[in-house]
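Title: Prediction job returns without error message
Component: structure pipeline
Severity: low
Priority: P3
Assignee: unassigned

Description:
Job completed but the reporter wants confirmation the result is attached to the right record. Sequence as submitted:
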Amino acid sequence: MKKIILLLLLLVASAFSATRIAATDGNDTNPGSLESSLATAIKAINLSGPGDAILVRGGLFAQTATISIRKSGHAQNKYYLPAFPQERPVFDFSNQPLGQRGFSLKADHWLIQGLEIKGAGNNGMEISRESYNRIERCSFYENRDTGLQLSNGAAFNEIINCDSYYNADPPDYGDADGFASMLTMGTGNYFFGCRAWVNSDDGWDGYLRGATDITTTLEQCWSRGNGYLTDGTDPGTQANGNGFKMGGGDNSNRDQLMHHFILKRCLAFDNKAKGFDQNNSWMAPFHVTSEDFVSLDPAWTRSPRRDDGRLPEIPFLRLADGSDLIDAGAVIDSAFFGTAPDLGAFETSNNSHAGKVNETPGGFHLAQNHPNPFNPSTVIRYHLAASCRTSLKIFDATGREIAVLVDSEKPAGEHWVTWHAGSLSAGVYWYRLQAGAFVQIKKNDPGEI
């Protein structure tokens, strides 16, 4: 009997030029294969070129120096730095000197996915000057400044399904936000499905100094309990404690600085100061009571994310059947059910509180194959949000193409394809769907086939 581990990899670039693996029990003199891993991510980064993948095995990577990324990819040939499927690597910078960042990304076209970054002497990660990066399913916590910061003209970056929490900067605690798209950053940055909680300053900070006339979009993001320390104490007046700070500045022209902050279906509560700062567009009058909601228990927001990284489905602040807040919003686009959008952070479907929550941007989805383990064939299911040219390919652990299952124009909707593995030897195999911009990595447990 042979063992096959089938991994699911949904990517939008061409096949990997090369794959390298870093693990806590590796050695930087190794080639970086599954059987002979490298020891550090930075060594793997230095060896890699555009189109390469660097997979990081689970475990604790103790760091004292900043991991600096300076090599840029291209729109059709990105760099990939994901966690190994179904594993969670932790980059621990707790022994790093104060003032140094954990990850410093000064490069374009990187996809970084599934990492935990904690304890940095400054930001957990800073994206500075560069653009078109995607940070997905990462966690930033216990850093000594903002968890993730965009600065120095960083533009058109996507932050998807990330968490940032317990970040604090003693002694004044006035700068550590969950996420910061602020000061000198560029335009077009997008946050989706992210959460910020119990950061000593703000959940999101859009304060400007040196930048103006920029746009930042947040969709389905949650911000709670900011402006406090982990023990619940207030660290002082320097800790602002806003859920979403959407502008402001400290220059003489601060009233003229324009940060076009767009929020869609976002949620803020239990923050020390305002939930939404710099906002002057409430649609009053409307009357709200507890009867309008399925639940008012905020403990639901502490639920774990779903397996694919999306926010949990919770009843907290969902509109109850019969609420007059359903269909009571202003029509500004078509993203709603009924005659108009609902008021609040969640949209109901058919007057039911089980509405559409944290759907994947773009609506593309690749499901885990079934059965897995299998012998000799398995079915792969995928969903397309729109008609498009679609390819579904199988690769081995080195990135070598094994089979092409789909390579044609496909209509929107659900699709199935059967893969006959035949006489393939035991090992690690990937399958890749090119059909949009959503990126997801999973792994099934090994089994006998």
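Comment from assignee: result matches the submitted record. Residues 162 and 387 are 29 Å apart (CA to CA).
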